[in-house]
Structure formats: C-alpha cells, structure tokens
C-alpha cells in the first residue's frame, strides 16, 4: 500500500534556530500534501495544504513566514519551523494524497521540542 | 465553522466487550466521513470511510460505522474488542469537493486483557 515517510521522527532544537521536517511519498506521486499539528489530548489541526509546484495554502491563524512549506516535487514536501520557540513544541504530522479520491496516507509524525 | 465532536476521550473496557465511539459534525452540506486509528507509536491508519451509498460501512479489523444524516453522526462500533484494539481513534470529516479534513479530538481506548 501507499507509504509516507516522515523524517525526523523527533528533534530537539535550541530556541531561535530553524528545523526542517521532510515528508516523502515512497511509492506514489502525491499531488497534494497536508501538514497538521497536534497538541497533547487535542485533535490534529490542519496547518496548510500544499500542491506540487505552487504556494501552500495556510489555514487561518497559521503564520506562513514562521512555518515555511515547500512542495518542490510530487514525492517531497518540507516544513521548516523558522526561529523556533518553546511554544512551537508539538507533534507535526504530514499526509499525502495521490490520484485516488481522498486517498490520504499519513506520515508517522515528528515530535519537535524547542528548548 | 465546521467542527467534529468526539466525546468520552478516555474509554476503558475489557476484552470481548462491545465498543461504540460517537462522532458528530456540524457541517450541513455533503460530507465525506472517516475513522482513523493510531496504535501506540504508529502513524494514523484508515479504518473506514463513507462517501455515499449504504450508510452502514464496514472497515478493517471488524469495525463498522453508521452514517445517520439526520443526526449528523458517524458512530464507530465493534461488537467484541481485543487487547490489540488499544489505540487512539479519530473521526474526520471532509467537505465534498474539498480535500481538507477536520478531525475530532480523538478517543483513547484501552482494552484490558
């Protein structure tokens, strides 16, 4: 079946630094990728939707300059958390959608801790 | 705004007991409905989905869900749970024609052997 690889699975960084998270579709072409953020005991909150070769569409309240999303190819999207602060500590999850309608495949998530 | 409600965040039950998790959504238009499961340390996996047709949907691992349009509900059920069903379960709603999903807060289900 469809597989999405998300890397790294966890990262600890210092406040003020930037962190890049990768999301790869391993055996299919992802026309659309989604980035979510999940706080403890909360639901997944959609941050942005990215389509290959175009600018990401951010949800209301999500800072596009802080959470940079690049979807340069049909198999790779990256999320860069710029100038990270402790309040950015969270679990970030990507999902990818191929050609089949609503064929979402989720990555295993990245636990970001900013110290 | 579209919202998805899941009640009883923590559910603890014994093996062989029946499980029902509620999911209600607020959007009044045509929706696509999903249940995902997240086993400890693993990624989200699709249990089942409803787009149209028979409102009783059967998914993997013996799960089923029923779409009741008049109640804006899509409850998940399993007649007899196993220890391996210990996981977190998320209901998600997608607007027809829109790829974005809205998730509920999830139900943490613990099955005691």
Notes on the structure:
The complex is a heterodimer of chains A (115) and B (113). Chain A is an all-beta fold and 115 residues long. Helices cover 0% and strands 53% of the residues of chain A. The radius of gyration of chain A is 13 Å and the shape is globular. Chain B contains no helices and 12 strands. In chain B, the strands form 3 sheets. In chain B, strands 2, 5, 6, 10, 11 and 12 form a 6-stranded mixed beta sheet that branches. Chain B has a 4-stranded antiparallel beta sheet with strand order 3-9-8-7, with no helix packed on it. Chain B has a two-stranded antiparallel ribbon with strand order 1-4. Chain B is mainly beta and 113 residues long. The chains are: A mainly beta (115), B mainly beta (113). Chain A binds chain B through residues 4, 6, 32, 34, 36, 41-46, 49, 93, 95, 97, 101-102, 104, 106-109, and chain B through 4, 9, 32, 34, 36, 42-46, 49, 51, 90, 94, 99-106.
In short:
The complex is a heterodimer of chains A (115) and B (113). Chain A is mainly β.
The overall pLDDT of chain B, averaged over residues, is 92
Strand count, sense and barrel status of the largest sheet of chain B are: 6 strands, mixed
Euclidean distance between termini CA atoms of chain B: 41 Å
Shape of chain A: globular
Shape of chain B: globular
Major sheet attributes of chain A: 7 strands, mixed
Mean pLDDT of chain A: 91
Q: Unreliable segments of chain B (pLDDT under 50, ≥5 consecutive)?
A: none
State the order of secondary-structure elements of chain A, H for helix, E for strand: EEEEEEEEEEE
Task: Give the structural class of chain B.
Answer: mainly beta
Poorly predicted residue ranges of chain A: none
Radius of gyration of chain A in whole Å, from Cα? Answer: 13 Å
